[in-house]
Amino acid sequence: MTAPVLVPIGQIVVDDSLQPRCDGISDEHVDALIEAPENWPPIVLARRNGSLFLIDGFHRHEAARLLGLGELTATIFDPAGDTDLFDIAFRLNAKHGRPLALRDRKAYAAAMLRDHAELPDREIGRRSGLHHETVGALREERRRPVHIPDRKPGELRGDVGPLDPIRFGKKASTAQKAVAGYIQRLGEALHDPYLDDSTLNVWSENPAVITRACFAAMGDDRAAKLLTMIEADAHFILQVSKARTIFTQEENK
Description:
Blueprint: E1 5-8, E2 12-13, H1 27-35, E3 43-48, E4 51-56, H2 58-67, E5 71-77, H3 85-95, H4 102-115, H5 121-128, H6 132-143, H7 164-167, H8 174-191, H9 207-218, H10 220-251
Parallel strand pairs: 2-4, 3-5
Antiparallel strand pairs: 1-5, 3-4
Helix pairs in contact: 1-2, 4-5, 4-6, 5-6, 8-9, 8-10, 9-10
């Protein structure tokens, strides 16, 4: 790595796929950093294809952005072309700062099992900070057959769902009906498994993976429309859905 240098924030590439924390940025930790920017250690950047990718220091970068800082002190390294940057990000984040949560370590172990299945459970456990039996259970889980629904991505089931009274209701507005459909499709996306190009199950607790699965289920256009419409109509839809659930429970008593 180079000696620490000042790097303009605008030149730093933040790739969420390199974020080792499943919950992403912690607002509380960012707030604490904002209180003492003079104590920040250098962030770590990897130079690849002429760009500087953030590897370690996601919270410091966010704090600097909120403070309006123009530069950050960073150390830069030039990894080989086949270097796994996520692996480096995990190991650096595991050494200092906020401790990695259990599911962060499990997500990293799952990635290792996907990309380096030949490694024994004890070695993956050593790298991820997990017991080898936990790694073995994750390996066994990956071997289980994955059920792929016969429906097309985002296609709703034939049975009546909790939002159908809105989707097919005469008094609901067009926007409310559309949002109800989008929310129901999103619900399907959250429960359907999705596969990557290597036909391996990539479902995980990583929000980025879940987001990609939902976009795959809904399609970019539906997802974009949902984002613009949901703020105005989701509250109404969810209240109706909740009321319907309560009504059904009372009827069944």
